[in-house]
Amino acid sequence: MLSLQDLRNAHDRIRPFIHRTPCLTCHTLDQMAGATLVFKCENFQKIGAFKARGGMNAALQLADNERKNGLATHSSGNHGQAVAFAARQLGMPAYVVMPRTAPQVKKDAVRGYGATVIECEPNIIAREAGVAAIITQTGAALIHPFDDDRVIAGQSTAAIELIEDNPTGQPFDVIMAPVGGGGLISGTALATHFLAPATRVVGAEPEGAADAILSFKSGHVEKAPYISTIADGLMAPLSERTLGYIRQYVSDIRLVNDVEIRAAQRLVWERMKIIIEPSCAVPLAVVLRYKDEFAGQTIGIILTGGNVDLGNGFTI
Question: Among 18-32, 63-77, 173-187, where is mean pLDDT lowest?
């Protein structure tokens, strides 16, 4: 179990390599939600996503003999960029197994940081088999996208900054983050538990990848009934590790559909004038769908990333 000191150490460790991203508000969105919203803008982070935090923290904790053959991971995009970024910072190769269906902009960015991209079929079995083969071939050190306490500690630092930089003068009633493999929500929940124990943590998940809500209810890692969502960063299932953190420190998980996700994404683009990707919009979509539940509350939302593929007939 990670301690508050572990989270503080992670924050100190990665500080030279990341941005302390701003916390922004929007009066129009507050009015639409009937609540006070504070957005932690990790779309402005290095690599365009919060994943830089966890990838960097894990890489910095590797021993010299672990680093010598580089880093390896599997990713739908943003974690792959994080590992590629960390490897470039530390002067080593990186190998990233990515689904062939991952957005081209994310594949290009991973390559742009100097990493080798190995494409696979778009499922977790193919991703894990691909990265296992790469590790056998190269001896690279695995940095898992979420099933790693070093990664979770790194991700927690976004919530630490959100709590410390809250511009409202009111404590948060709720802090919300999207749920994919569970690394961010685990770190968010831990940071909130230690620093703002009266604040509820709520996970936000697409209906088209709804494994976390099932796992949360059953206490076992479950598979989603089906995978079909525009939120490409949230398709991975939980691990036993992340489910453990979620069951202990997360109050609830709420679902939204792709129409609601796209509408929330468009609102942020139009009203806040900032670019976010679909996975990033899921928490705002939850607040707008469940307005009665969140009415009158002060809510912190982690905007997770802004890596959008503008090709292939892009619309919003």
Answer: 63-77
Q: What is the pLDDT of residues 107-161, one digit of tens each?
A: 999 999 999 999 999 888 999 999 999 999 999 999 999 999 999 999 999 999 9
Rounded CA gap, 119 and 43, in Å?
Answer: 25
Go through 29-56 and write b for each residue having 16 or more CB atoms within 10 A of its CB, e for each that does not: beebbebbbbbbbbbbbbbbbbbbbbbb
Phi and psi at residue 54, to the nearest 5°: -70, -40
Element (H, E) at 236: none
pLDDT recorded at residue 310: 80
pLDDT beyond 80 at 80: yes
Q: Write down all domains in the chain, each with its CATH number in brackets.
A: 4-49+148-303 (3.40.50.1100), 52-142 (3.40.50.1100)
Query: Tokens 């948060």 sit at which residue?
Result: 172
**Residue 26 carries which side chain, given as an amino acid letter?**
C
Question: Each residue of 141-154: pLDDT tens digit?
Answer: 999 999 999 999 99
Looking at residue 105, its pLDDT comes to: 86
Contact between 157 and 53 (Cβ < 8 Å)? yes
Contact 297, 174 (CB under 8 A): yes
Asked if 59 and 84 touch (Cβ cutoff 8 Å), the reply is no
| DSSP annotation string for 44-70 | GSGGGBTHHHHHHHHHHTS-HHHHTT-
* Helix segments in the chain, DSSP class H: 4-14, 27-33, 51-60, 64-67, 78-90, 104-112, 124-138, 149-165, 183-195, 212-218, 240-249, 258-267, 278-289, 291-294
Asked if residues 234 and 282 have their Cβ atoms less than 8 Å apart, the reply is: yes
Reported as type and span, the H/E element at residue 175 is strand 174-178
Q: How many other CB atoms are found less than 10 A from the CB of residue 197?
A: 8
Q: What is the CA radius of gyration of the chain?
A: 18
The amino acid occupying position 300 is G
| Edge-first strand listing for the sheet containing 71-74 | 116-120, 94-99, 71-74, 141-142
